[in-house]
Input
Amino acid sequence: MELRATLSEAAAARLKGILNSLTSPRHQSTPGGGAAPLTDPATGQKVPFDQRRGLAFEAFLEGLDPDALPVHGGNGTTLVITMDLADLLAGIGVGVLPDGGKISATQVRRLSCTAKMVPAVLGGESEVLDQGRAKRLFTGPQILAMGIRDKTCRAEGCLVPAKWCEAHHFTLSWLHGGRTDTKDGKLLCSWHHHRAHDDAYDMTLMANGDVRFRKRT
Output
């Protein structure tokens, strides 16, 4: 999707400041760390600046608190994604957005960590069997407690501050029945949160509580 907008000088300056803070080299703790990494760890190639700006804008949007936004259509910013449950649990297939757009199962799993989602469970003939209530995952107080505990992203060697991180169910995702407890939560920067839901990477819990990412061969 290509996004173009006309903003006031004040709004444009504020948006540029936010994006600059997320793309600044001073905030890159490791190659591939942070919301908009300087290099792609999979290839070692430098990420183009316009692509980094796009990643930063995504991180900014996903970091917004849905409860702080105006109600729209009676449901706040609830995100409805329609997808076959078996495909979602298996990590295959695509999820369909309200406008007909499609996203991968990996993206659905990652968004489920931070967004309010209404699961529309489909049967074999794609009929709606059950539509659950919106599920809030880690609460503000829980994330605050994890931030005090972790200080930074828990990926090995990553120093992105906790305030820029997202809460991730480490042992078992809520899609598979995991509990939303702080003891099982790990704060990960946007980059490493993407890797946590990428089947091309393995995660290992280290003795000190950090998470080691390794690309599968």
